UniProtKB/TrEMBL annotation:
Gene Ontology terms, MF aspect: rRNA (cytosine-N4-)-methyltransferase activity
EC code: 2.1.1.199
Gene Ontology CC annotation, any one: cytoplasm
GO biological process per UniProt: rRNA base methylation
UniProt family annotation: Belongs to the methyltransferase superfamily. RsmH family.
Protein name: Ribosomal RNA small subunit methyltransferase H
Organism domain of life: Bacteria
UniProt-listed PANTHER family: 12S RRNA N4-METHYLCYTIDINE METHYLTRANSFERASE, S-ADENOSYL-METHYLTRANSFERASE MRAW
InterPro entries, sorted: RsmH (IPR002903), SAM-dep_MeTrfase_MraW_recog (IPR023397), SAM-dependent_MTases_sf (IPR029063)
Record keywords, A-Z: Cytoplasm, Methyltransferase, rRNA processing, S-adenosyl-L-methionine, Transferase
Amino acid sequence: MQSTLQHTTVLLDEAVDALLGAAGESPSGTFIDGTFGRGGHSRRILLRLGPEGRLVAFDKDPEAIAEATRITDARFSIRHEGFRNLGEMPAGSAAGVLLDLGVSSPQIDSPGRGFSFRFDGPLDMRMDTTRGQSVAEWLADAEVGQIAEVIREYGEERFAGPIAKAIVARRQERGPIGTTAELAELVAGAVRTREQGQNPATRTFQALRIFINAELEELQQALEASLRVLAPGGRLVVISFHSLEDRIVKQFIAQHSKEVYDRRAPFAAPQPMRLNALDRIKPSAGEVAANPRARSAVMRVAERTEVPA
């Protein structure tokens, strides 16, 4: 069943302009939308593409794949897999790669997906509901130390230890946690101080979602793959929604935006820079006012340099 929940694409014009900017008004190359979501970026890209242009989109979410099948444009194709697989594209074949990270509004707002503590639903949080382990299944067996490490590392939560102990104690007393409401209530009881305006379960839910979907590992793999598939002059555009993601993207672009010297061979020619950092863009005040979920977004843009012969 198609979801009726709505999604407002963040930095829509800015992202598409950055992606296609080097390719002219009607680009004819192959572009990659690594996170189709509900198709906001993809549909805008297709409006700008020339008749010989191509758009290949990726997404793990079966609901996103269902939405993508509504696009009948022959220049468009969708792959039901994560953007870590974009490295399967031919080397140097892409004129641009767009990665819009995070969770879409329909995913957050659907109680059945288990992403949000605002709704009571099954504690799932998988991007791809057709495979893999849910959060509830993982929490049913994980040890205190494992749970605390995940919540501390991916949620930057000060009270990761008490939360982990509370989860295991509850499991031993009454059985595994099965719903988002149960987890949110348990976390609220373990977090002794709360940040103003933030639900005490925010960091824990973020951490478990990132972990269960291996989001940061997939981002690292996709960034590395982008270097191989981007043609010289091709753009890499990444929209992040929290500091862990943005730090990875920032460091990746910085690492490849300079020549690398081998200290073991001081007279050897350096490895050339592979990216040219172009821009860092935040949503405008108007966009944030219209869509509060845009407030944490950061978009970074880089361009693939010429590959030496």
